TrEMBL record, chain A:
Membrane-protein topology: Single-pass type I membrane protein
Compartments it resides in: Cell membrane
Taxonomy of the source species: Eukaryota, Metazoa, Chordata, Craniata, Vertebrata
Main location, first listed in the record: membrane
Keyword Flavoprotein: no
Annotated Collectrin-like domain residues: 20-222
Protein's recorded name: Collectrin
Keywords, alphabetical: Cell membrane, Glycoprotein, Membrane, Phosphoprotein, Signal, Transmembrane, Transmembrane helix
GO BP annotation list: positive regulation of amino acid transport
Cellular component per GO, a single term: extracellular exosome
Xref: InterPro entries: Collectrin, Collectrin_dom
Keyword Iron: no
Transmembrane portions of the chain: 142-166
Automatic annotation (TrEMBL), chain B:
One BP annotation, GO: glycine transport
A UniProt-annotated Pfam family: SNF
PROSITE patterns per UniProt: NA_NEUROTRAN_SYMP_1, NA_NEUROTRAN_SYMP_2, NA_NEUROTRAN_SYMP_3
Example GO molecular function: metal ion binding
Main location: membrane
Membrane topology listed for this record: Multi-pass membrane protein
The name this protein goes by in its record: Transporter
Keywords per UniProt: Glycoprotein, Membrane, Metal-binding, Sodium, Symport, Transmembrane, Transmembrane helix, Transport
UniProt organism field: Acanthisitta chloris (rifleman)
Subcellular location: Membrane
Amino acids binding Na(+): 24-25, 29, 253, 285, 404, 408
Keyword Membrane: yes
Amino acid sequence: LLLTFCVVAIAHAELCKPDAQNAFKVRISIKTALGDNAYAWDASEEYLFKAMVAFAMRRYSSKSTTQISNVLLCNVTDRVSFWFVVTDSSKNVTTVPGSEVEAAIRMNRNRINSAFLLSDKTLQFLKITSTLSPPVEPSTPAWLIVFGVVLCLIVAGIVFLVVSGIQNRKKKNKDSAERENLEEKVEVTVTVENGIPCEALDLKAGHINGVFAADDERFTSL
Amino acid sequence: KAMEKSRPLWDNPLQFVFACISYAVGLGNVWRFPYLCQMYGGGGFLIPYLIMLIAEGMPLLYLELAVGQRMRQGSIGAWKIISPYLCGVGVASVVVSFFLSMYYNVINAWAFWYLFHSFQDPLPWATCPLNSNHTGYEEECEKTSSTQYFWYRQTLNISPSLETSGSVQWEQALCLTLAWLVVYLCILRGTASTGKVVYITASLPYCVLIIYLIRGLTLHGAVNGLIYMFTPKLEQLSNPKTWISAATQIFFSLGLGFGSLIAFASYNESSNNCERHAIIVSLINSTTSIFASIVTFSIYGFKATFNYESCINKVILLLLNAFDLEEGSLTADNLNEMKEYLMATYPQEYAQLAPQIKNCSLEAELDTAVQGTGLAFIVYSEAIKNMEVPQLYSVLYFFMLLMLGIGSMLGNTAAILTPLTDSRVIAARFPKEVISGVVCFINCVIGLIFTMEAGNYWFDIFNDYAATLSLLLIVLVETIAVCYIYGIRRFEKDLYTMIGRKPNWYWKIMWAFVSPLLIISLFIFYITDYILTGTLQYQAWDATQGQLVTKDYPGYALAVIGLLVAASTMCIPLGALVTFIRKRLKREKVSTV
């Protein structure tokens, strides 16, 4: 029993080491993500990690053969960072190809992140690129809506001012035309009512009234 | 019957003061003065600035207001009255104002663009957009910052050089059209509408500046910026460029020589006390510059501190990851000791990392002095995206820029429209609304050039060369004309009839000797500077590197620059020549008859 245990341990050490084939480095930044609510990284957390990776492999290949014991962790540092590798349960000494592991992790990234209360940035799989979520884009860009509103207000203002200006001018023209007609009528009535015809003022016998002479000047200066 | 049309007037003197403030306090106060303050000695720059204000700013402002108020005509009519040979000065003013209004409204279009984009969460310039297969960010955005990417790529869509013009950007064209519609709405009814609008455009920027002052001073790291700015570096006072920059800033900040001040003053009552108003307006203008630079420097301090702390955090993360140290073992305080320790214990790995470890320096971040559109649209938006509730501050800030810009545009268009509405030839046939509409339409169509991909380069050409030399010449001719051709005694008498008080010896000495000498020396300096620099260069955006590079102007761009300067300066001698020829012809006609 001791011998098999030793063999297995040595085999595991061969499979999981930094930069081994099909091995991935994981970097976790708990304090950055959670601040005061940070939990300590201990053996239980490692167990959870192994469980999540096994879960991911099961979901991806949909054969329920991957066990928690198939996931090997090594070189855990203070950072917290470590390497892991997934062994094939059918053939004990080989590892599952890296592409399969990568695809499995990618498919279930969200679930793995939320199990640890972390995000893509704080739970990093160093060789696996994450798909960034595109920003939410509404069908009409927001700026066009605001632009449309402001444009309508300004155009309404311009139309209002122009139209009221035209109306004011029409009213002013009508008023001044009416006033002109009124003045003409008044002039006509003055000359009719005024029994003395203007020629009478030129008679030498009469005195030329300075006021009327001044009036004459005003009319002729036009 | 000749119906005498009375000249439209401001409703009250307050409208006139607000109009002048709204015109003079513009974008230059916000984006040029803080830069000059930083470059030329911080707090010490205030000394040459205030001296130039007293020697040059106040006298010239008083002169222009008095001329406008006395002659009660726009710039062309006013100078014709002073001497028929000087009608060219008025025409030159109108030409320069025309050039200015062509390109200035593009800034309002940009302000509108940013304002409309502030209504989203998160702000579009806060993060880089993703690349096509969603694995990372856009390459160009990675090389530079998200705010610079938003400005150069998504706003301007700038081309790599002046030669590649590209096509008109429809989004910018829409914003430009809107900007011109807003200006048209404000000038539609002449002083009746302008007088009401200036209440808002003059006072709103101050409200926003106060809000920003309170917000800025409470930001983390703002004090660093303020200390950096206000520490006087008095040795800069011995640098002649300091004095020249102070004189130039006062000169252009007040907007002298465009004819706008003459136009505004022509709508005054004859008895308006323009001496008091000139002092008030110039003092308010300078105080606003200083106030705006306090706000700008607290924002600078915040941005620099933020970038410095980000830089330190990046270095810490790099070291933690490389050496697998425990989180929290490296902090900003022990970073230097830990670096030494790591260098000693793992020399090889450290040497490999060394090129990536940047030396973060707060001084270096504060030293990045920026002016112009870079300051207004890049630096400020970068600071805003890191504040809480960034949408609110963004909307306030760009609305303030808009008010400042539109206030100045009102003055520019007044300078063009007042001579047009004064001239009986045009005003008799077309109503005011049509003339304003035609001017706005022509400017809008020409302004579409600045919305092309290379438009920003043409904008820089107009910004740097359209108004600088011509204005100096115009104001010089103005001062000499009033003092020596019209006669300072006659001018004194006019002022006495208007205000009831003769100008005292300070004004007379400034008008007759000091200001003309200052302008002549500025003029000589600029000409020699242009001659000595040889070829003119410009900054082009290189998308592959993600930064600005210097390039030479092509031949036709230099021709355009020459044309811009010549078009306005040549008006002055041409005007005198045309008047001379006309008088000669008239005399000949009279003598032959």
